[in-house]
């Protein structure tokens, strides 16, 4: 978890994870369509990620609810 969802803070967290696991080089990532997350991953693992997959919001919501028990709340 990061205090702000910016590419800088996410990148800092990824860098810490990498320092704990120097041989870690994930071949795939799953993110929502968050530019900050995607940019942080690309910057941290420059050249190590193969593709970017964007899932529709309905698929993400179903995954969050089914697997994590977290439902997104939408403003009314």
Give an overview in words.
- With 76 residues, the protein is mainly α.
- It is built from three helices and no strands.
- Helix 1 packs across helix 2.
- The longest helix has 14 residues.
- It is globular.
Estimate what percentage of residues fall within beta strands: under 5%
Number of domains: 1
Per DSSP E runs of 2 or more residues, the count of β-strands stands at: 0
Instruction: Please tell me the overall pLDDT.
Output: 75
Helix tally equals 3
What is the approximate shape?
globular
Low-confidence stretches: none
List the helices and strands and how they pair.
Layout: H1 7-20, H2 35-44, H3 57-68
Helix pairs in contact: 1-2
Observed structural traits:
76 residues; 3 helices; single chain; mainly alpha
Summed up:
With 76 residues, the chain is mostly helical.
């Amino acid at each position: 978890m990061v205090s702000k969802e910016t590419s800088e803070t996410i990148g800092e967290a990824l860098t810490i994870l990498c320092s704990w696991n120097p041989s870690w080089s994930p071949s795939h990532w799953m993110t929502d369509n968050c530019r900050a997350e995607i940019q942080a991953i690309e910057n941290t693992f420059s050249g190590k990620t193969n593709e970017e997959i964007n899932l529709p919001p309905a698929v993400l919501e179903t995954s969050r609810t089914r697997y994590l028990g977290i439902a997104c709340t939408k403003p009314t």
